[in-house]
Amino acid sequence: CMQAFQFAAFQESGPNLSICAPYVQRLEQVADALSPVDYARAKIASGLIALDKRHYRQATQLLTGLRSPALAGNATTLDFAAILEPIMRIGDFAQLLALLALSQLDRPALEKFLSNPDFKVLFETEAELRGAVTGFHECHYYDALSKLAGRTAQMRLDLFLAPHATGLLQTVRSKAIRQFVAPFVTVQLSKMATVFRTTPAEVEKELALMIRNREIDARIDKTRGALQAAHADQDEQAALKAAALAQETVEDTEMALRVLSMYRNGVVVQPAAPQVMPAGASYPAGAAAAAAAGGAAAQPY
């Protein structure tokens, strides 16, 4: 199976991992019977096939789950030199893993990734990559993005990572922006430009694209030069409705108090007195019955 993978991966025309996928699937079916080294190699092969299909989340799960069940409870770390020897260099694997982890893992999963003893050993010789992942987790976004940008050329030359490097780097940057603006209702573009070491105009262009792609739910207030969270408008409308309801309650209460005060002070609005016809006068034709009814209604009980 590994020979088939190597044949597919190291062709002169570039990797064609789809042709070795059936062999890797057969290997996964007997994964529990494999040695820890072969188990990890099978996971890496599956992860690279998922990467080739642009199934980045699946690739991340496979490449971060290299420890065999046979090593459960074993404090011995993985021997990456032996595992990766027929596949790629350790530095290239660390680079691929760091970029996938930053682009696909949420904060708790990234923290778990950083505390994994196997990956601590892996990144011992890759201080720049370790600093990028740690900086991103600690919200030092510019430092993390700068370290990744310094390796862009190397990523674009990588056999497996090259077709995906630009897109994954942009995903990491967009994720950093989303995490930065998430706690705020309003963020000044000038402040964001300072954090990400760019200009307010460039930040505005980037945010406009993210809003258009529905990556963030917000709007840009050009007058104030700020990013306004969409839920801020909802909060404002709720506050206005509450204020209107409070004003209506105050007016109803004042009216009730006036009526009560008039009642206590004997102020009563009397009905109009009934019209009395002078002696000898007569009602117009057709009005006699109405007058009689009105007179009857006007009599006291």
Structural summary, described in words:
- Mean pLDDT is 82; it is low at 293-301.
- Strands 1-3-2 form a 3-stranded antiparallel sheet.
- The protein is built from 16 helices and 3 strands.
- The chain has 301 residues and is mostly helical.
- Helix 2 (21-29) packs antiparallel against helix 3, helix 4 (56-63) packs across helix 6 (90-104) and helix 9 (127-137) runs antiparallel to helix 10 (141-149).
Summarize the structure.
The chain is mainly α and 301 residues long. 61% of the residues lie in helices and 4% in strands. The longest helix has 35 residues, at 230-264.
Keywords:
301 residues; mainly alpha; 3-stranded antiparallel sheet; 16 helices; 4% strand; disordered C terminus
